[in-house]
Design a protein that fits this description.
The structure is a single chain. With 114 residues, this protein is of the alpha+beta class. Helices cover 21% and strands 22% of the residues. The chain has 2 helices and 5 strands, in the order αβββαββ. The longest helix is centred in the middle third of the chain and has 18 residues, at 58-75.
Length: 114
Amino acid sequence: MPDCIFCKIIKKEIPAKIIYEDDMVIAFEDINPQAPVHTLIVPRKHIPTLLDITTEDRALIGHIFMAANNIAKNKGISVSGFRTLFNCNKDAGQAVYHIHLHMLGGRRLAWPPG
């Protein structure tokens, strides 16, 4: 997608504080963090919303969560706890239409969110 900001970050056309990357995903710090640790884990494959995931994406979606596991340990939030979430479409707060997993931690998180 030519105008997708996350695709541009993946191609290194826009700078980001990248904390993890492999052949399937890239993870970087959110520019508007809502917690001391707020990382976005983004698949390299452009998928606009969760509703656009297909059965062929099963391994990719699992890989996103395995990356989250690795990042939580590296960021030191695996023991204290963290939250992961996807937003899907406008009313849920999705601002960039390229799926991305938010990982938040580093402080006590309130419930319910929103």
